[in-house]
Amino acid sequence: MPFTADPVLQLPALAGVAIGLGILARGMRGHIVGTRIADTATSTISAIAVGEVRVHGVVEPAELTLTSPLQSAPCVYYRARIRASREGDDTVFQEERSVGFRIRDASGSLRVFPRGAQWDVPDRFSDSSDWPAGLRLRSGPALAPANPSHEELVAQLLTVRPAGGLAGVPGSSGGSAPFAGGLLGASRGPRHYEESRLELGDEVTVLGRVLPFGDLEDPAGADVDEAIGGPLAALADPEIAADIAAARAAGLLEGSAEEAWGNAAIPGFGIGRPTRPPELDRAANPLPIATSDDRARFERTFDMAPGTLVIAASDEVPLIIAAGPPHQVVGRQEDRLVVGLLGALLAIASAVVLAASLSGMIVT
């Protein structure tokens, strides 16, 4: 009787090869990142110069902060995901965003522009149930001013907002989180919630290129990164990015923030205290002009001299932002390498089984 390949083994073997190679690739990427961080000495911020540097310090806010979707924690970066089951890939919500921040060590602080960064931030929240005890869905906007004034804090305190929660979800108060709408309430039963984030005051290691602020090609774009789920996430699409670049080169885009945004480009306009009179409809109520103290605060917060050194991603030097001190970051990456080697063993074993099945050594 001739030998026939066993199709029952072929699909699992192929899956094992693919999964094993994926785990190996992730482990090798971790090893490369860990080696780069380990081979670069930490520089004090006060002594940095233009070029590739590694700095270690704590996170401080710049102009804006984020509010995480699942636990409503103030942060400068988050990655959140909700799945219908812990092991499955049936994702019902996913979002990853970051904003610019400052890193401070004992000698000073440095502005970080995060667009295009590789993030290494472990989960701070991971739970599976109908409604985990630590779940506190975001009920307001994702972005907030980093240093609100006393009047702004009072206004926030006095603002009445609808109760958070999701209709039909056990333990919910029946409202609707703006980032999810009715999505989470559409399917019942336990879900798996994951959220990693980099909060204010966290230790962080940053490896990237230091350059003058005036050399950034797109300071506004470099200051916000919405890899998944945010309104600017479409910019990650190469075709859309190419279209925008072509429009900019052809002069089809406005040349300044004032031309593009009008009144919204006036510092303080968004909080009702512009630094200069805006152009309003005659029927609109005039806005109070910001005081000299407010104007000085806006300038300190948003204005940056062209020669100010900042750290950002570049074509030559990738930007790596990792939670924790350097030795801890390197240890995490080496752990990923070990897991990657186990993935290589899985891929080899699966390939052997696949080859044996295709050659007829394993028969039905």
What attributes does this structure have?
7 helices, 364 residues, five-stranded mixed barrel, globular, alpha+beta, 14 strands, seven-stranded antiparallel beta sheet
In short:
The protein contains seven helices and 14 strands. By secondary structure, it is an alpha+beta fold.
Q: Find the count of extended strands (DSSP E, 2+ residues).
A: 14
Strand content: 15-25%
From the alpha carbons, calculate the radius of gyration and give it in angstroms. Answer: 25 Å
In round numbers, the mean pLDDT is 77
Q: Alpha-carbon distance between the termini?
A: 11 Å
Tell me, what's the shape?
globular
Can you summarize the main beta sheet? 7 strands, antiparallel
Order of helix and strand elements from N to C terminus:
HEEEEEEEEEHEEHEHHHEEH
Which class best fits the helix and strand makeup?
alpha+beta
Q: List segments where confidence is low: pLDDT < 50 over at least 5 consecutive residues.
A: 163-183
Overall number of domains? 1
Tally of helical segments: 7
Range of helix content: 25-40%
